[in-house]
Amino acid sequence: MDIELTDDEHLRALAALEAVVGNDTDALTILAGGVGERPLPALLAAYGQHTLHRILIAAFGIDATMDYDETGRLVAEINSDPMARMVFVLTDALHNQAAPAGNDPMTAKLVGRSILMAIHAFTDADDQDALTVLRALRNQVLRRD
To answer: Above 70 in pLDDT, residue 27?
Structure first.
């Protein structure tokens, strides 16, 4: 099940991933969050799960226009695909790594790097391409009403 993220959490996670690409530990420390905010490593794990699941959905051709049977068939394909199952294991591992970390910026950096490497594995995007993708995702969040 996908973890709900607010628009602010999406933007914070995207800023953190940009900081990871730029090796900016100071920015990660600032983005750690305050009272009432999800710790940054946990936020990145949730964002990574959200993003990687969406990549899987797109890779298997699932879209909102499909009927229930077609969607069910493709979801069954995802669930039986070894690479897709590895994504599920990775996102679970990211949550397990983030849970005890609190707001440790180094753990946030490690979780963020794992997310970027997983995106690279699916899209062949290097860090600069990933920044372009991250900016597009940020713009998508900002345009929502």
So the answer is: yes
